[in-house]
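User: Can you model how alpha-D-ribofuranose sits in this protein?
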Amino acid sequence: MIWNLGSINLDNFYHLAHLPGPGETITADRFHQGLGGKGANMSVAAARAAAHVAHVGAVGADGKWAAERLLEYGVDVRHIALVQVPTGHANIHVDQQGENNIVLMGGANLMISEQIIGGALAEAGPGDFLLMQNETCGQAFAAQTAKTLGLRLAYAAAPFSADAVMALMDQIDLLVMNAVEAAQLQDATGQDISDLAVDDVVITLGAEGCRWVSNKGKTDQSFDAYSADPVDTTGAGDTFTGFLIAGLDRGLPMRDAIDLGMRAGALMVAREGTADVIPDLKEIQDHDFS
Ligand code: RIB
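Assistant: Here's the modeled complex, given as structure tokens:
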């Protein structure tokens, strides 16, 4: 079982000829909206990977649709609170190469109370996963509660804050980062990834694949990426993480869970959008990755 303390956003996508520079005004070629938030994307990915995932979060009155959509996608939404603050949103710029930049408004994601988190984790049991990213409040309380209850803590360090990771470092079992975030963490701590007090670190490398540093097993392994035709990289990392944790939750060895996540990520970069277009296990099985 996966308990995901995570953000829920309305994603506004602006497709542009290029990403705007400072002071530049640019007209979008296309616009569309969808369900997003790193947290919601990971919950949907885990559900698409056949995990039982409960999302712990909050929306405003304008975001009831988002909780309903998560439910339709197979996510347990009983611990999503309705709060008196607008739902979070993200304005996402996507260029013609599929690269993006994102502006976030946290909104309800920053109003998740300890009561909501505690109420959810009261149902959790030893061996369950607590998954978190850095788009909500309540991370320290959730981590402490989860460790007391014997849960495994997986942390996706995005949006990156060295302070946020370091505050949780003693409690994290599995840390997921991209290469830029890993370099930032090394700068901030002065420590090599292999010296961190975290059992497993998974570093996504985009087209270069992925690296798994097992500090417990004293191994450092690389995995090649599957070929992909990127049109929009938004949410691909979240999809990877959701599938990775779902794989581990159902007992796959790390290598196989990483492989599953990389296949899901390769399909995801070829799609425009976020939570609404995350592939499921059947699509991954049916796809020819050779
Ligand atoms: O990682 C992609 C996500 O980042 C988007 O869905 C957006 O909401 C932001 O949280």
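A couple of observations from the model: The first helix runs from residue 38 to 48. The longest strand covers residues 9-15.
User: Helpful, thanks.
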